[in-house]
Amino acid sequence: MHTGTNLSVAPWEPLSVPTFDRNPADLGISECARLLACGELNSRALVDACLQRIGGEGKMLNAFIHVDGDMARAEADLSDLRRAECSPLSPLDGVPIALKDNIDVIGLPTTNGLGTSWMPSQDAGVVTLLRERGIVLIGKTNMHEGALGATTDNPHHGRTENPAVPGHTPGGSSGGSGAAVAARLCPGALGTDTMGSVRVPAAYCGIVGFKPSRGYWPISGVAPLVTELDTVGPMTRTVEDTAMLIDLPIERIDLEEIVLATLENFDGADVEPNAWNIYQEALARLRFAGATIRPMKLSDFDPSAARRVGFMVSEVEAMVAHESMMEACSDAFSPEFRSMLDFGARLPAARYVKAKRSLARVGRVFSEILDEADAIISLTGPQMAFPFDDEVPVTQADFTAPANFAGCPSVSLPILVAESARPVGLQVMAGIGRDADLVGIAAAIEKILDT
Amino acid sequence: MHTGTNLSVAPWEPLSVPTFDRNPADLGISECARLLACGELNSRALVDACLQRIGGEGKMLNAFIHVDGDMARAEADLSDLRRAECSPLSPLDGVPIALKDNIDVIGLPTTNGLGTSWMPSQDAGVVTLLRERGIVLIGKTNMHEGALGATTDNPHHGRTENPAVPGHTPGGSSGGSGAAVAARLCPGALGTDTMGSVRVPAAYCGIVGFKPSRGYWPISGVAPLVTELDTVGPMTRTVEDTAMLIDLPIERIDLEEIVLATLENFDGADVEPNAWNIYQEALARLRFAGATIRPMKLSDFDPSAARRVGFMVSEVEAMVAHESMMEACSDAFSPEFRSMLDFGARLPAARYVKAKRSLARVGRVFSEILDEADAIISLTGPQMAFPFDDEVPVTQADFTAPANFAGCPSVSLPILVAESARPVGLQVMAGIGRDADLVGIAAAIEKILDT
Predict the structure, then answer these.
(1) Is the pLDDT of residue A198 over 90?
(2) Between chains, do B345 and A350 touch, taking CB under 8 Å as contact?
(3) Which of B311, B317, B320, B340 has the highest number of chain A CBs within 10 A, making it the mutation to test binding with A?
């Protein structure tokens, strides 16, 4: 049984059946929805519990950059009024959700992880969608500077701790959202994912991170990194919670009827032996459950080369995104980030054009294989969470970035591991627009990984 | 009455009713189709007449880079066999069409207007479509070097004369196709249009040039300039011919029921007074016919700035397209073209990214106005055909390029002018995907302009 104070206990263990003597902050999204619907819980109590944990034992995680308790409580009270009038806006009316701090919310400053902030004049498109469903915005989470990197060791806002492995990075760039959800500071959060920034922290923290298809959710009002690759995605503790937050039903999938491809192209990456063993065990369990697992090889795809090209494009587009602010206040950028932007500024246009075309080719190759298999499975990344002072592994985004290049949906699911071990993520990718199928496949796989 | 030898007589005058004592080379596409269908003409005779005119009085125009008479005759004979067996592949089976020399045809060299050539191993996607309809490929037409420019004064293949105004440019970059069709060397041709390269020569030569919506026809096998803007389009002498070649029905449009927008943003361009007067007369005729003509102004659109940005993008993408050939044989490029590519090579990626975004914005602004009006009308260009030795007017593509940025269909229709005058084109643009509507509107307008 988890207590609020013991944040180092692995939080990715499955919750037992909800018993309401628990702290409401421990509840997942679907549990909140059920208890709010039957009146056993109100949004204000839920939000208060989350705020208390965020400001209490959660503080040491440094998962949040900005929390406006008054605003969240006011939204919760309005939700409770709607529930009292039997007119909730949706099943999630009153459920508090955290947002990565590159997503605009009127009334809250946006930092995009930089050493400055601005007050947006409009809600991000996805925030409008959440508000229409009565979802309460509980705060803005810490992130890797400018969303370009994956440690969430932020030079302006401090490092976010991995609640599952103290002293280790929660991954990034949506590391604050990952840590907040893993540590049960709130039932769910939104991150953004340009080359893996939702899925990597989900894997490192032991939660579910879902990158929907390009265009599933709007990216208006999200600080741009690479507009063609940027995707907003939910981070939750279960696939059911993800399905509710992303507003998709869970289709029943029979694992015996599906083909899961593994990619030999990923074998060259420098995979941590522990992660590899856990992954092999997961594959064995899936096979035992009847799934067909078929090794495949893409003839024209080198994951490391593709990732390098992806970073090149990111640095150019980040330069364009930050150019005017760099001129206005260069102090808001760390020397490391500035040097990446400088690289972007020096790159000739012709190389950028070729880079974009080679990313498009990767996308096509992936789309082809996703016509042949129901999904591709792999580790979410070659590594697990690592200590802050370790060098960042260069291959960190090798397995996640292709889904952005392809525009296809991809989810990281926690593989259940021994309590003291670092979390490991299993990535599942499906074809463009097949988000609902992917949710169904993920739910079926989750059941196998959980048992 | 035109005779084959008098090519300086304005060829944009409407044809009289087909009388078969005429030279078959004088026939338009729809006339060819009718006569082939009823057996009054066979493809071989038609192709022979075109080949004879191309090699005879048409030679001085220098409209073609490559003609393979044997191949065309063999295709014509096969077509006649199909007709004899009552199994034509389409109503256009046996109709000869010329292709701009940046469109690949197996068995014919492609030059792309450069001082070199290569033998393609595959037909361009659009060529496959033409072959499936039994259309005969009569030859490859001259073009502006690398499709980047609009005089068709080609340093490697010579200048193509404007058959309507001797000593003047036929426009470009599809100038050879424009001249060939205007001079009745063949009933129709294909051009390609990245910022106006089908419509400008159509306007300068007094024919119909249609740029369909992005994606209407495939661009595979077309030497790339700016892949997102490149569009293959038909060039013919009437809207009916265009409709047949592009395989769309002519919907009956009642001019009294449509709204045609004119753009005040175009007023700043340095429009030739003669062209302006002719355009105003055309507007008056359309108003008299009952069309509602509504002046509109886009709040965030400067045509000259947009065109400059379009050229910047073209130079970068042309650099990428030609890089390896430049290394292999730099002699194949004129110093002028090389200097444009060098500019492209030096441009920083960040400027390119901003350029692409500003083009996308122009596209959005145009799409919005095309939600409010059935079509936008304007002059096709601020100028008419000019002498080869005159400086190229910088605003030449200001009115045509926005349709490429928007991806929307756009057609240039000849406005009937006095015999000695230079042709003037009226441009009509409709919303993306509304190609069939545009054909209908163009047919209705053509009727008014012709009377």
Answers:
(1) yes
(2) yes
(3) B320
Shortest CA distance from B226: residue in chain A: A353
Other beta carbons within 10 angstroms of residue B104's beta carbon come to 25
pLDDT for residue B451 is more than 70: no
Residues in chain A, total: 451
Whole-number Å distance between alpha carbons of B230 and A353 = 16
Task: Identify from B311, B324, B353, B364 which residue to disrupt to test chain A contact, counting A C-beta atoms within 10 A and taking the largest count.
Answer: B353
User: What confidence tens digit (pLDDT) does each residue in A320-371 have?
Assistant: 999 999 999 999 999 999 999 999 999 999 999 999 999 999 999 998 999 8
Partners of B354 on chain A (C-beta within 8 Å) are 320
Contacts of A319 in chain B (CB under 8 A): 349-350
pLDDT value for A17? 43
- In the prediction, which pLDDT does B14 show? 41
pLDDT of A18 higher than 80: no
Kindly write down the DSSP assignment for every residue of A96-152, as one continuous string.
Answer: EEEEETTB-BTTB-B-TTSS--B--SS--HHHHHHHHTT-EEEEEE--SGGG-SSS-
| CATH superfamily of domain region B255-303+354-450 | Amidase signature (AS) domain (3.90.1300.10)
pLDDT at position B418 is 75
Helix pair angle (B349-372, B303-328), 10° resolution: 130
Closest-CA residue of A relative to B319 is: A350
Considering CB atoms only, which of A345, A351, A354 is closest to B350?
A: A345
- pLDDT at residue B20, as a whole number: 57
Which of A317, A349, A353 is opposite residue B351, by nearest beta carbon? A349
**A24-246, superfamily in CATH?**
Amidase signature (AS) domain (3.90.1300.10)
In chain B, CATH 3.90.1300.10 sits at 24-246, 255-303+354-450
pLDDT tens digits, one per residue of B382-434: 999 999 999 999 999 999 999 999 999 999 999 977 776 899 999 999 999 99
Cis status, amide bond into B43, omega within 30 of 0: no
CA B239 from chain center: how many Å? 13
The one catalytic residue in B30, B43, B79, B173 is B173
Contact B351 A354 (CB under 8 A): no
Residues of A with a catalytic annotation lie at: 100, 173, 197
Mean pLDDT on A184-193: 98
Q: What is the pLDDT of residue B17?
A: 43
Cβ distance A437 to A430 under 8 Å? yes
DSSP state, residue B108: B
Candidates A328, A332, A360, A333; CA nearest to A344 is A333
Task: Please report which confidence band the pLDDT of residue B8 belongs to, taking 50, 70 and 90 as the band edges.
Answer: very low
Under 8 Å between Cβ of A101 and A197: no
CB pairs under 8 A between A and B: 49
A9 pLDDT more than 60: no
pTM listed for this prediction: 0.84
B448 to each of A87, A89, A132, A316, how far by Cα in Å?
A: 60, 56, 52, 51
Cβ distance A344 to B347 less than 8 Å, yes or no, reads no
Q: pLDDT tens digit string along A149-167?
A: 999 999 999 999 999 999 9
Summary mean pLDDT of chain B: 93
Task: Answer yes or no: is the ipTM higher than 0.95.
Answer: no
What local confidence, expressed as pLDDT, does residue B3 receive? 37
Q: What is the pLDDT of residue A20?
A: 58
B140 is catalytic: no
pLDDT at B18 over 70: no
| A341 vs B contacts (CB less than 8 Å) | none
CA distance to partner chain B, nearest, from residue A344 (Å): 7
Choosing from B30, B43, B79, B100, the catalytic residue is B100
Residue A182 C-alpha, separation from nearest chain B C-alpha, in angstroms? 37
